[in-house]
Amino acid sequence: MGRLADRWRSHLLTTLSGNDDGHPHWVGRIAEGKDIGYFGPDSAAWAVHGGVPTMVAGIRALLMQTLHPGAMAGVHDWSRYREDPLGRLSGTIQWLVTVTFADTTVARLESSRVGRFHERVVGTYLDSRGVERAYAAGDQELLSWVHVVFTDAFLACETIWGRDIPGGADAYVREWAKAGELIGVQNPPRSTAELRRQLDAFRDAGVLKSDERVAEAVRFIRKPPLRPSMMPAYRIMFAGAVASIPPNYRAMLGLKRSPLPAIWATRVVLDTVRLLLGSSSTSEDAARSRIARLNGADARVAYPDGGGS
After folding, report:
1. What CA–CA distance (Å, rounded) separates 2 from 134?
2. Per the structure, how many domains does the chain have?
3. DSSP-assigned letters across all residues of the chain
4. Range in 118-132, 161-175, 202-216, 236-250 with the lowest mean pLDDT
5. What is the largest CA-CA distance in the chain?
6. N or C: which end of the chain has fewer CB within 10 A?
7. Better pLDDT: 308 or 168
8. Which residue range is the domain that position 230 belongs to?
9. Are 299 and 32 within 8 A, CB to CB?
10. Which residues pair with 126 in a beta bridge?
């Protein structure tokens, strides 16, 4: 059993970080820097993004993202998710973790990297009314949609499977608005009420759409090319992600909640993952090392731009 657990842990670390020792290449940059970063050890962002419910949140966010036809067109036309799904996952994790735990300079540089990629993602798509529209990944509507569904997913999954969030749910939404601003979102939500209004506004305006492209993406997310040893746990987390999605959006995705106790089973899987990986991530450890170095050097450590406490 010990050997099996070690092998599963190695596979999990490779999937999440691209490296079987769990030390992705960007961790070194997180350990460097001259300030605490936009958040900090007691922030809501650290609590949410440092927890294992992020694994389910990523699934939920990707499912929800498919409902905007412009976002779906960008993924369909430009993403290599079929050929290199873990590479796309790793890139998303890199941005999320870096902005959360790195100092402000590195966080801005990483967001600029994402922005440069967005510059070349352009094309056309058919909207929910069948009208052809041009899109660019840097369009406000698309940036806002992706930010809102990611914020909603990570908050919801931490609420269901995680621990108490410092400052509560509103604190997380308010803090993570800074990440939205770094990639160009002009009016990110700053409370759970604003988050819900902005999310539902897309649906109420008739922007969202369910079609064969969505169905194709959902099929892929349901059964990605992971190692066979990881698929049983992934299937449970997928069922948990589906169960966490509000019924109206779940219906648009063509998904049904499992009759089995998906929420409970997902909690068991996440508790097992937490046991295998430990209570903190390598990125969080690197950030704490940076902060300890700054404090040890008697540096003036502050929270830039009114970040978390």
Report:
1. 53
2. 1
3. -HHHHHHHHHHHHHHHHSSTTS--TTHHHHH--SS--SS-TTSHHHHHHTSTTHHHHHHHHHHHHTTSHHHHHHHHHH--TTT-HHHHHHHHHHHHHHHHHS-HHHHHHHHHHHHHHHHT-EEEEE-TTS-EEEEETT-HHHHHHHHHHHHHHHHHHHHHHS-PPTT-HHHHHHHHHHHHHHTT-SS---SHHHHHHHHHHHHHTT-----HHHHHHHHHHHS-S--GGGHHHHHHHHHHHHHHS-HHHHHHTT----SS-HHHHHHHHHHHHHHHH-SS-HHHHHHHHHHHHHHHTT-----GGG---
4. 118-132
5. 61
6. N
7. 168
8. 2-306
9. no
10. 132
Tens-place pLDDT, residues 28-73: 889 988 999 999 999 999 999 988 999 999 999 999 999 999 988 8
Encoding tokens for residue 181? 């601003």
pLDDT at position 12: 54
φ/ψ (deg, to 5) at 168:
85, 180
77 pLDDT higher than 80:
no
Predicted TM-score (pTM) of this structure: 0.87
